[in-house]
Amino acid sequence: QVQLVESGGGLVQAGGSLRLSCTASGLTFRNFHMGWFRQAPGKEREGVSIITYNGVGTHYATSVEGRFIISRDNAKNTLSLQMNSLKAQDTAIYYCAVKVSGAWNDFSGFTYWGQGTQVIVSS
After folding, report:
1. Sign of the alpha-carbon torsion through 47, 51, 57, 63
2. CA–CA dist 85, 100 (Å, integer)
3. How far apart are CA 84 and CA 58, in angstroms?
4. Pairing of strands 110-113, 10-13
5. What is the pLDDT of residues 30-68, one digit of tens each?
6. Are strands 18-25 and 78-83 parallel, antiparallel or unpaired?
7. Helix, strand and coil percent figures for the chain, each rounded to 5
8. Could you give the CA distance from residue 60 to residue 77 in angstroms, rounded to a whole number?
9. Is 94 helix (H, G, I), strand (E, B) or coil?
10. N or C: at which end does the chain have fewer Cβ atoms within 10 angstroms?
């Protein structure tokens, strides 16, 4: 079965950086667009970033554009999110997911979610 495992979360001061990773198994990773989502306490889950199956195309939520960088290594079945200039409002649980339908740069059409990794940004 498809399994996604996120890692790399932690506590960081505002202005700092973190790098999240997601390791995928049980699917042909290189065939799928992938995405990062987050859910802050008391808020709905929101899309953060999407990357095409081949890594050529990337899409970001306005709130993170210019600060976060999504990447993937299809040889290692891994998805990454480099988060720079972190703000308190970036505090959330971050999830990776597999896109199975819809336009590549649309935050809908995702399934197979990981368990998430907690990011806490102290101000």
Report:
1. positive
2. 31
3. 17
4. unpaired
5. 999 999 999 999 999 999 999 999 999 999 999 999 999
6. antiparallel
7. 5, 50, 45
8. 21
9. strand
10. N
Residue in the structure block whose two tokens are 């990776």:
96
Token reading at 53: 């199956």
Q: How many CB atoms lie within 10 A of CB 46?
A: 14
Instruction: Estimate to the nearest angstrom the gap between the alpha carbon of 121 and the chain centroid.
Output: 16
pLDDT of residue 101: 94
Q: Map tokens 């998430």 to a residue.
A: 116
pLDDT (tens digit, 9 = 90+) per residue, 99-117? 999 999 999 999 999 999 9
* Buried b or exposed e, range 52-76, using 16+ CB within 10 angstroms: bbeeeebbbbeebeeebbbebebee
Cα separation, 48 vs 58, in Å, equals 11
Tokens linked to 109: 């059409």
- CA angle 84–90–93, rounded 5-degree value: 110
